[in-house]
UniProtKB/TrEMBL annotation:
Organism, scientific name: Rhinopithecus roxellana
Keywords recorded for this protein, A-Z: Signal
PANTHER family noted in UniProt: FIBRONECTIN TYPE III DOMAIN-CONTAINING PROTEIN 7 (PTHR47135:SF1)
UniProt cross-references to SMART domains, sorted A to Z: FN3 (SM00060)
Name of the protein in question: Fibronectin type III domain containing 7
Region forming the signal peptide: 1-25
Any single Pfam family the record assigns to this protein: fn3
InterPro entries, A to Z: FN3_dom, FN3_sf, Ig-like_fold
Length: 733
């Protein structure tokens, strides 16, 4: 297009040259001077200049470095169009006359203003309009204004650097005019854009509902909303959604369901969109007839009618009519009613639901026959610990009786048409829950009959063991599963009868004679009765202890222990014990020799009596001091013509000694002073053989005679000193 224009201008120029050559007397017009060049529209620049005399038109040229655009104008001002927005152009002008055209004027720069933003508008709510646009080249900010399209009211203007803006607090359902433009860094505004947008309407108010319960339909009305073109009514329930639409202020919804709660909302709409739904109004239809009706006797004499809860049922009325013509009813907001009833009757029952809309339709009519009456005057008689006999009077409606005895683990049953039953094979000491149920074919068993409790006699205890302690007390232990039982243990024998009692599992008997045999039994007793005796256990008491325990020292290292044999003792064990060791013998005789005794120390003597079955009685304890040790180194020295000094070395365990000389002419004795180890015998004849024995003397004064004896010969040599000749030891017991 521009190339064609240039060709045309070239041709014109050529013609002008020719004309100039033909009419050389005429000259070209003056070069115009541009006063100012400016842009008010993004695709054009306006140029102003002083008029050139003789010029008939002007040629305006705009160059941006890439393109050249020329425009012929008649006079100032002139406008170059077809330019790019926000672009810097170099502007020149030539004047044209019949004589030709002038040279281009000095250039002047001008820049086109910014392009207008392309607007997208919407109404997100009834009181707001959202304005959005794309970024504009070279724009640093935007100015957006809004006013009512009818010109009423004020203009609201906002500046922003964003590409969107929301005007709020507007009037619902009203048409608004929106104008927007961008500006550059110098604050120069660009082209503006204008559009209209209506706000969406407000939700309808003053909603009225009129429900026709018979036809199950509802009519709705409301106040008209400003700027609304259409209205939609929605009835929403958990299972359905019903609507009606109209351009008016009322409509009707049919085919509503019983027992349903609907949330009613009305919305208005126009070309901007729909309003929010109005505040919801609740519509409750008439309740449906109650279902799942159940009838129970719990307990007998109390008829319980229950049904499933129905939606929108505010309360219920139950009618109960017995087969004798009597009718009662119950009014409740619950789902159960209780009626007094009599066993053996048939009742006819119907249930209705009510709410503000009215009564539900009639549901099913039910009939119910009550259970037979429970037996009365039940008389349980305990026959034994494992058998119970029960009798009662016949009751109305019962065709069969079922008796059960339960202990929590096992159940014993008997069924009979007769009003009595015998329960056998019961457990001892067991609490039974005994119930007699009446039965009929129509209703079955009356399971609410009152039980009775009875406990059988206690079980026989089982003796586990019979033991004896160190104090000859008899401890009897038994096993039993009885509760709160008192046990009596009896030991019976030829020496009499002995007993002990306990509520536990053991007791102790004292004072049973030694050397006796008893038969031990146990019996349990409770409030229910007395058990059979347990199996007997034989009991043998320890043998009786011997009497007359005697300890005699035979030699320095041997003693004899003797006793009198006690009852049923078969053998005995004698024990002699000290810090140096122990000496023991086991014998069936009534004495025992114990050797290896150490002289001069204290011993403890113990004697045990043992029966043929091995029962042992620790019979006696006795302290025994063994005899002092015999002295050593016994020697005789002559003192004068008729005196002898006996000398010895003192031994352990004795502080006193006695000396005896036995000769054919007499017995001579001397006792040394305390602490001395020699003794003098005077007036002893010489020329004789003497047996000398130095004996320890016990604290009791008893002289021990088991020490060895020595034989000495006392000669008469005529000298007053004489000679004492040792002849050796004398062996004597």
């Amino acid at each position: 297009m521009a190339g064609g224009r240039e060709t045309c201008l070239t041709l014109i120029g050529f013609i002008l040259i020719c004309l100039t050559m033909v009419a050389s007397a005429k000259s070209a017009p003056e070069i115009p001077t541009i006063d100012q060049a400016y842009s008010k529209i993004s695709n054009s620049i306006t140029v102003e200049w002083a008029t050139v005399p003789g010029a008939t038109s002007y040629l305006l040229t705009a160059e941006d470095g890439d393109t050249v655009i020329e425009t012929m104008v008649a006079n100032s001002p002139g406008t170059v169009t077809g330019l790019k927005a926000a672009t810097l152009y170099e502007i020149t002008i030539r004047s044209i006359s019949a004589a030709g055209r002038s040279q281009a004027s000095p250039p002047k720069q001008a820049k086109t203003v910014l392009a207008a933003p392309i607007l997208e508008v919407s109404s997100p709510s009834s009181d707001s309009i959202l304005v959005q646009w794309e970024a504009v080249y070279m724009a640093t900010g935007f100015s957006v204004s809004i006013m009512r399209a009818n010109g009423l009211g004020s203009i609201w203007k906002e500046n922003t650097t964003n590409t969107s803006l929301t005007f709020t607090s507007l009037e619902a359902g009203t048409l608004y005019t929106i104008k927007a433009y961008a500006w550059n860094a110098n604050g120069i505004p660009g082209d503006d854009s204008t559009c209209n947008q209506r706000t969406s309407p407000r939700a309808p108010a003053s909603i009225q509902v009129s429900f026709d319960s018979g036809a199950l339909k509802a009519s709705f009305s409301w106040a008209l909303a400003e700027g609304a073109f259409n209205y939609t009514v929605m009835a929403l329930s958990d299972s359905s959604e019903l609507t009606c639409s109209t351009a008016f202020s009322s409509c009707t919804i049919s085919s509503l369901q019983c027992g349903t709660e609907y949330l009613i909302s009305v919305s208005a709409s126009n070309d901007a969109g729909s309003s929010k739904s109005s505040s919801e109004v609740t519509l409750k239809t008439v309740a449906c007839a109650p279902g799942r009706v159940t009838i129970q006797e719990d307990p007998p004499g109390h008829l319980s009618v229950a049904w499933s809860n129905v939606d929108l049922g505010d309360y219920y009325v139950v009618f109960v009519k017995s087969d004798d013509g009597l009718e009662v009813h119950c009014n409740t907001s619950l789902t159960q009613c209780n009626f007094l009833s009599q066993c053996g009757f048939t009742y006819f029952i119907s249930v209705f639901a009510y709410n503000k809309a009215g009564q539900s339709p009639l549901g099913d009519i039910f009939n119910y026959t009550t259970a037979p009456c429970c037996p009365s005057d039940i008389n349980p008689v305990l026959v034994s610990s494992d058998r119970v006999e029960i009798v009662w009077s016949p009751v109305r409606g019962a065709e069969l009786y079922e008796t059960k005895a339960a202990d929590g683990y096992n159940t014993v049953e008997c069924n009979d048409t007769a009003p009595g039953c015998t329960l056998s094979a019961l457990e001892c000491d067991t609490k039974y829950n005994i119930t007699v149920y009446s039965f009929s074919e129509v209703r079955g068993s009356n399971m609410s009959c009152t039980p009775q409790f009875i406990t059988t006699a206690p079980c026989s205890p089982e003796i586990k063991n019979v033991s004896r302690d160190a104090f000859s007390m008899i401890n009897v232990h038994w096993r039993s599963t009885n509760d709160d039982a008192t046990y009596t243990v009896t030991a019976q024998g030829e020496k009499g009868l002995y007993q002990c009692s306990s509520m536990g599992e053991s007791c102790t008997m004292r004072g049973l004679p030694c050397g006796s045999v008893f038969s031990v039994t146990a019996v349990a007793e409770t409030q229910a009765g007395r058990s059979l005796p347990s199996y007997s256990v034989p009991l043998e008491t320890v043998p009786c202890c011997p009497t007359g325990l005697t300890v005699t020292q035979i030699t320095q290292s041997v003693i004899n222990v003797s006793w009198t044999i006690g009852r049923v003792a078969q053998t005995h064990v004698a024990v002699l014990e000290s810090h140096t060791g122990q000496s023991k013998c086991h014998t069936h005789q009534n004495y025992c020799l114990l050797g290896c005794i150490t002289c001069g120390i204290n011993y403890t003597v113990t004697l045990k009596a043992i029966s043929a079955t091995g029962l042992t009685a620790d019979c006696s304890y006795q302290s025994y001091f063994s005899g002092a040790c015999c002295p050593l180194g016994v020697k005789l020295y002559r003192l004068g013509s008729n005196g002898i000094r006996i000398y010895w070395q003192a031994s352990r365990g004795s502080a006193s000694y006695s000396t005896d000389l036995y000769g054919s002419k007499g017995i001579f004795t001397c006792t040394p002073s305390a602490g001395l180890s020699f003794c003098d015998v005077t007036e002893i004849p010489c020329g004789d053989v003497y047996t000398v024995m130095v004996s320890p003397v016990a604290e009791t004064g008893l002289k021990l005679t088991f020490c060895p004896k020595k034989i000495y010969s006392v000669t008469c040599s005529g000298s007053t000193l004489g000679m004492v000749i040792y002849r050796g030891k004398r062996n004597e017991e």
